[in-house]
Structures are given as structure tokens and as C-alpha cells.
Amino acid sequence: RKGEVIGVMKSSLDTLSTFALAVLAGAFISLGAISATVAWTTAGAQVPYGPSRILGGVVFSLGLILVIVGGAELFTCNNLIIMAWASRRLSTLRLLRNWVIVYFGNMIGAVATALFVFLGQQFMMGNGDVGVTALNIGLAKVKLGFVQAIMLGILCNALVCLAVWLCYSARSTIDKIFAIIFPVSAFVAAGFEHSVANMYFVPIAILIKDRATVDFWQVTGANPAAYQALGWVPFLFRNLLPVTIGNII
Predict the structure, then answer these.
(1) What is the DSSP string of 63-125?
(2) Cβ atoms within 10 A of the Cβ of 101, count?
(3) Are 204 and 115 in contact (CB under 8 A)?
(4) How far is Cα 87 from Cα 27, in angstroms, rounded to an integer?
(5) Are the CB atoms for 107 and 93 separated by under 8 Å?
(6) Is the pTM value of this prediction over 0.85?
(7) Closest alpha carbon to 217 in 107, 147, 152, 127
(8) Cβ of 144: how many Cβ atoms within 10 Å?
């Protein structure tokens, strides 16, 4: 019942408020993605794969913590509004209106954050190793198969929605934080696909590939030709589209 009530409340927000809160959510998830990218940067150290993935998942949890505690509007969380729709407390039009506004607000917040991070040259940290990690993350995402990306999107949002569901029973901020960390850490560590996170992960990789100076490539020794698959069309149609479908399912 609480899920239905929250769904009705979210769908009743005015357009401007919904959009502004969605932009914030896109930025919040991006902050978690930035932290995870740094955590996965080995800088030549021999870090075991599993612990590295788990650490990245824990710090990525920052994004959903900021969304839930701060009250922002995140597309993957708002997929739970379908509970209110299923109980006929919400029309299909109002459901889709919320999803569309929040989705594009999330995208603007995430892509803007990627642009700010690029202009701040954060990717040059660790002698450019952070930038190489960002490139490899983005490349791996656009190389996923269409059906594979859908399946990984389904698994991801099952865990994200479970995290939100657990927060319904929380009575304090600390309760919410602990309810979020384990499901979110699990989906990130397992390599599942989150559409809004990818709105940061892939654009920052594209920006680095297209706009980084010669100094970056010389310092890191990375080969620009290895990242030619990174582009806006592959991102939108080979990753974002199937992952979004999976998240909704």
C-alpha cells in the first residue's frame, strides 16, 4: 500500500518540480559512478578482481543514497510507480508522463555531470589511469549484445527496486542507508546494467575519446584506435535502449 501511495504522490508532482528533481537524481547517480571509476582504477597495482568490484559497488551506493535521502526523482526507482498503475490508482498517461519527464531529466543531469568532470580534467588523476578506466568501462558497455544488455538491465533494476522497497520500512536515515548499500553493491559488483548510471559512464568515455589532448594519450600509453567503437549512436541504440527496456521489465 505504501508503494502505491508513493507512486500516486510522485505522479502528482508538477512538471517543473519533477524535472528539476530528475536532473538532480542524474547528477547524484553520476557522483556514485565517478567514485566507482576511481575505486576500479588500479594504477598498476595488483588488486584482486572480486574485492575491487565490491569496493566499487559500495562507493557507487552513494548515488542511490543521495536520491532516496535527498528526495530526488530517479527513473529506475520510479519504475515502481507501476504498482499504483496496476491497482488502478493511476492512469497509463500519468505513469508515462512521469517516466518520460524523469528519464530525460536524469539524462541531462548525468551528461552535464560528465561534461563538468571532463572540463575539470578529473580523468587525468593517477597519471591518466582514471581516464583509461573510464574509457574501458564505456567501451565494455557499448560492446554488449542487445539481448545481453536487456537481461543485465532486468537483473539490475530488480536489485534497485528491492533497495527502494526495503527503504519503505526504514524509520531513520541510517536505516535507509543500510537498506540501500547491499542491493546496490550487489548489482554493481555483478556487472548488471543501470540506464541512468550509463548516462554518465558512456558519455564521459566518449568525451575523453573525442576531446582528450595528445598529452593524455602520451602519458597513459593508451591507443585511441582501440576506442573507436565509442560513439553517441552505439551508446543510444546498442546500450541505452536495451538497458532501459530491461530496467522497465
Answers:
(1) HHHHHHHHT---HHHHGGGHHHHHTTSS-HHHHHHHHHHHHHHHHHHHHHHHHHHHHTTGGGT
(2) 21
(3) no
(4) 32
(5) no
(6) yes
(7) 127
(8) 19
User: Rounded distance, CA 190 to CA 180, Å?
Assistant: 16
Please name the residues in contact with 216: beta carbons below 8 A apart, sequence gap of 6 or more. Answer: 123, 124, 128, 131, 208, 222
Taking residues 22-50, what's their average pLDDT? Answer: 92
Contact 60, 184 (CB under 8 A): yes
Q: What is residue 99's three-state secondary structure?
A: helix
Classify the phi-psi angles of 98: left when phi > 0, otherwise alpha if psi is within -120 to 50, otherwise beta: alpha
Strands (E) in 44-184, as ranges, are none
Rg (CA), the chain: 18
Phi first, then psi: give them for residue 153, nearest 5 degrees.
Answer: -70, -40
The residue whose grid cell reads 557499448 is 142
| Count of other CB atoms within 10 angstroms of residue 146 | 13
Q: What's the rounded Cα separation, in Å, for the pair 210 and 63? A: 27
pLDDT digits (tens, 9 = 90+) for 82-132: 999 999 999 999 999 999 999 999 999 999 999 999 999 999 999 999 999
For the four alpha carbons of 65, 71, 74 and 76, in that order, the dihedral sign comes to positive
Q: How far apart are the first and last CA of the chain?
A: 21
